[in-house]
Amino acid sequence: MSEKKRIELTRLQGVIAIASFSSGVIIAAVCLFLVPPLGEIANSAISIVSELLVLCGAILGVKASYDVKFRKFEAELKDVIENEHKYND
């Protein structure tokens, strides 16, 4: 994957994670302070907020896992190429 495409994907993941987190916080605040009875959040709002926060965590977790595995693979590939050059020379 090219560097430009990887940066675009990282930005997209970041935007989606921030949007889902912000949406969850906004929904919780609206339900807590603006929807009667005040101070009580309905079960449906809690489930939506939890799903949005899980989505945010999943996106960031998958991205972190992918980045670690990609860098590990890249390092192993460089080692193999260096070893081949040593043995061929």
**Terminal residue distance:** 30 Å
Strand content: under 5%
Largest sheet: none
Q: Report the count of strand segments.
A: 0
Order of helices and strands: HH
pLDDT < 50 stretches? none
Overall geometry comes to: rod-shaped
Rg over alpha carbons: 22 Å
Mean pLDDT score: 82
Helix tally equals: 2
Decide which structural class fits the backbone.
Answer: mainly alpha
Helical content class? over 70%
Count of discrete structural domains: 1
Kindly summarize this structure in a few lines.
The protein is mostly helical and 89 residues long. The chain contains two helices and no strands.
Care to describe what's here?
By secondary structure, the protein is mainly α. It has one domain (3-88). The protein has two helices and no strands. It has helices at residues 3-33, 43-88.
